[in-house]
Design brief:
The complex is a heterodimer of chains A (441) and B (311).
Chain A lengths: L8 H13 L18 E7 L6 H20 L8 E7 L4 H14 L4 E3 L4 H14 L3 E3 L6 H4 L6 E3 L4 H15 L5 E5 L4 H17 L4 E6 L9 H10 L3 E3 L4 H13 L2 H4 L1 E4 L3 H7 L8 E2 L15 H15 L5 H23 L7 H8 L3 E3 L4 E4 L5 E2 L2 E7 L8 E8 L1 H4 L7 H6 L16
Parallel strand pairs in A: 1-2, 1-3, 3-4, 4-5, 6-7, 6-8, 8-9, 9-10
Antiparallel strand pairs in A: 10-14, 11-12, 12-13, 14-15
Helix pairs in contact in A: 2-13, 3-4, 6-7, 9-11, 13-14
Chain B lengths: L1 H39 L6 H21 L6 H24 L9 H23 L8 H6 L1 E6 L2 E6 H24 L1 H11 L1 H6 L4 H23 L9 H16 L4 H21 L7 H12 L14
Antiparallel strand pairs in B: 1-2
Helix pairs in contact in B: 1-6, 1-9, 1-10, 1-11, 2-3, 2-4, 2-9, 2-10, 3-9, 6-7, 7-9, 10-11, 10-12, 11-12
Pfam families (chain A): Peripla_BP_6 (PF13458)
Protein name (chain A): ABC transporter substrate-binding protein
Family (chain A): Belongs to the leucine-binding protein family.
């Protein structure tokens, strides 16, 4: 049973005005001629508390910084933008309620959701129901666009399949002789899903690898000593882990102290966000990823000045380097700006309604600090992946990749209309011949 | 069975070493929680926050000492100092400012008040230390590693994990037992716990005993956090994770039991480690399975005494 949403005085007046003008006679109020609003409200769901706030708070900071910059430059289509933030930490029930409130009561024009895949899975059906453009700005689950069609939802970055497949291809390309492997992932959807993607692809591309340990400790566990002991005893050639945040920092520190990095090669697809915290503790010579192509030492960014400006502005304001959720937030905001520009131009300068805005997102190309991302017809963004081997340079006080391989997004993404696990099973070892050579240095 | 044991003896030996260290950390937190409940009869949800603040304070002091060029052993001073500061300042403030007003009220109210305090302290941590992971491992690095033989191989353990954590936990257990049974103040605490009215009638200041006990319990939580800080990474939410496991230990032991907390921490620590080796998919639930199994057989906990208050 649902509770009727109370009408505010403003929304009641808007409904009355719509009725008088006749627009409510048409099915779907979104088809009405949209008026340019006094401000463009953007609802952003992110983690403001709990362990995942290591991602959520930097992303929020990025949104605030970029919205300030946009407003100083005159807003979007002359309309100032304002962010309304919602904490994902209390869970999906709370989040779904807040999503509805922002859209129906606060008059939010665009929603950004979310960091957690669970949050995205809960919010995307709402975008269908409320017919509200929703940018999936960070979550990685492959299920969103593989299990349904969502005409108002768009993901402005890569997702789990390319983010896991690219490090596997890197491993197979650069260290193909491994025979044994262990996995240590967090015990929740991302940890389990990323292992399924890795294992399926590995079985297709290099059959016969022996998995000597499958460890799934609790998300947010303070200690991984026992798991490390077991990995030390098992001596796998390779250890795959999609740990992130404080868990990854703890794992790397405990494993480095006990010389596990000397026995096995680690593959860490989500390493980038923890490199600043780890500093010199992160051992060199292990495979690291960043859920995209946005490394601070990107070997050939499309727009070096844009990347340098973003990094420097962020550093000046928050006294740290931006991490990948900051880049994902940048991408979402850049996509929103590009879509509004496209929709306004298509309407001859008029303000787009919900359908017109969503239509502008389909097939959209938008710039990021490092490249250009295209949104496919299913709403999924094509973001290149860069994977490399951890090393230290004079430029950064923390590990960055060397010998980077830029994986074109289309090479590592599941084709439209297919499911990732089914597609991964069809991969053949000759795919490795298409993998670009590492960029030396 | 014999063949299985023969094959896995070495692995179980490693699991035992891991389990001991884990049990030591869990015990440090649970024993403070249990002591406070035994005397004040309040289940303090904010106990996890005291653990977290102790850990953050120890890490901050350790980083501060390192930045000042102090030798690595100063990291150990930071651990003790953090526990003393957090226990000595926050303990009395919370007891006198908040808990004193809710003694004797319904347990639901007490839970709500300490839960509210927990939420406030969680946000205070974020205000002070931010949300990015914080770590300081000088005490752990100072002692280095010990190679434990494993067949023809060796498995490195940190000396901190093998010796410091179990050592401090044992010393705490022995010290608490001695304090409560052999010193006047300890006996006064036991007297108030056993029969507050009779103790008060004999001239014992129960308010002072409550203040002292809570301060001591807060100090133990902070010491647990401080001891954990070199081994782990501090992030928002670390207090919540700790308090949940501590409740499992306390419930298994029986509320108010100190030696019981040590035994159940050992059971849970070793059980969890063994699960990582033998059935890793059960690692997360093993502590709670042990708790449920114990409570099914003995609803008052392993060492709990029905209708009798003990420290």
């Amino acid at each position: 049973m649902s509770t009727p949403t109370p009408l505010t005085r403003r929304s009641a007046l808007a409904v009355a005005a719509g009725a008088v003008s006749g627009s409510l006679l048409w099915p779907g109020s979104g088809r009405a001629q949209a008026q340019k609003p006094a401000e463009l409200k953007v609802g952003i769901t992110t983690f403001l508390s709990g362990p995942a706030s290591v991602f959520g708070v930097p992303a929020k900071q990025t949104a605030e910084m970029l919205f300030d910059e946009i407003n100083q430059a005159g807003g979007i289509g002359g309309v100032p933008v304002r962010a309304l933030f919602v904490d994902e930490a209390p869970g999906t029930d709370h989040l779904v309620g807040e999503f509805r409130r922002l859209v129906q009561n606060e008059g939010v024009q665009v929603m950004f959701a979310s960091i957690s895949s669970g949050s995205c899975l809960a919010c995307t059906p709402l975008s269908d129901e409320l017919r509200k453009t929703t940018i999936l700005w960070d979550c990685g689950t492959q299920r969103i666009f593989e299990e349904g069609r969502h005409p108002f939802a768009f993901r402005t970055q890569g997702y789990a399949t390319p983010e896991v497949l690219a490090p596997l291809l890197y491993l197979l390309k650069t260290k193909p002789d491994f025979r044994t492997l262990a996995v240590i992932n967090q015990d929740y959807a991302w940890g389990r899903d990323s292992w399924e993607i890795w294992k399926t692809a590995m079985d297709a591309l290099k059959p016969g690898v022996r998995v000597v340990a499958e460890l799934f400790p609790r998300l947010g566990a303070p200690d991984f000593s026992t798991e490390i002991t077991r990995l030390l005893a098992a001596r796998p050639d390779v250890i795959f882990s999609t740990f992130w945040g404080g868990d990854l920092v703890t794992l790397v520190r405990q494993a480095a102290e006990r010389r596990l990095f000397e026995r096995s090669t680690f593959v860490l697809p989500v390493a980038e966000a923890s490199m600043q915290i780890l500093g010199r503790t992160m051992p060199a010579g292990h495979i690291i990823g960043t859920r995209g192509d946005h490394w601070n030492n990107h070997p050939r960014p499309k727009d070096p000045a844009r990347l340098a400006r973003f990094v420097e502005n962020y550093r000046r304001r928050f006294n740290e380097y931006p991490i990948y959720p900051c880049h994902h937030m940048y991408q979402a905001i850049s996509a929103m700006q590009a879509a509004y520009a496209k929709a306004i131009a298509a309407k001859g300068g008029g303000w787009p309604n919900d359908q017109e805005l969503a239509a502008a997102f389909r097939g959209l190309e938008f710039p990021t600090p490092t490249s250009t991302i295209t949104l496919r017809e299913d709403g999924q963004g094509l973001e290149d992946q860069i994977v490399g081997v951890s090393t230290f340079t004079e430029r950064f006080p923390f590990a960055v990749p060397k010998d980077m391989i830029v994986f074109p997004a289309a090479m590592v993404s599941t084709p439209v209309g297919q499911k990732s696990v089914d597609w991964l099973k069809t991969l053949k070892p000759d795919l490795l011949a298409q993998v670009p050579a590492p960029i030396a240095g | 069975m014999a063949g299985w044991l023969e094959q896995n003896t070495l692995l179980l030996g490693l699991a035992l070493l891991d389990g001991l260290a884990y049990a030591a950390l869990v015990f440090m937190v649970a024993v403070g929680l249990n002591l406070v409940f035994g005397v004040l009869r309040i289940i303090n949800i904010a106990h996890g926050s005291l653990f977290a603040i102790g850990a953050y304070t120890a890490a901050s002091l350790g980083l501060f000492f390192a930045a000042r060029g102090l030798p690595p052993w100063a990291g150990y001073v930071a651990l003790v100092l953090a526990a003393a500061l957090v226990g000595g300042i926050l303990g009395p403030v919370i007891e006198a400012g908040l808990l004193r007003r809710i003694y004797g009220h319904e347990q639901v109210l007490q839970l709500l008040v300490t839960f509210a305090l927990f939420m406030i302290l969680e946000d205070a941590q974020k205000l002070i230390w931010g949300v990015q992971p914080v770590s300081s491992d000088a005490p752990l690095r100072l002692l280095g590693t010990v190679d434990v033989p494993f067949g023809e191989d060796v498995v490195p353990f940190t000396a901190y994990q093998l010796f410091v954590l179990p050592g401090v936990a044992l010393a705490t257990l022995a010290g608490l037992a001695w304090f409560l049974r052999r010193t006047l103040t300890g006996r006064v605490i036991v007297a108030v716990t056993t029969d507050r009215e009779a103790a008060t009638a004999m001239g014992i200041d129960a308010r002072r005993v409550f203040l002292l006990t809570f301060t001591f319990g807060a100090g133990l939580a902070a010491l647990g956090g401080a001891l954990a800080s070199p081994t782990t990474t501090l992030v928002p939410g670390i207090g919540a994770a700790t308090i949940v496991l501590s409740f499992a230990v306390v419930a298994t032991a029986g509320l108010g039991q100190i030696e019981g907390a040590a035994i159940s921490a050992l059971l849970i620590g070793i059980g969890r480690s063994a699960a990582v080796y033998l059935a890793p998919e059960f690692e997360v639930v093993v502590p709670y399975l042990i708790m449920v199994a114990v409570l099914l057989v003995r609803p008052q906990g392993l060492f709990g005494v029905v209708e009798t208050r003990r420290v």
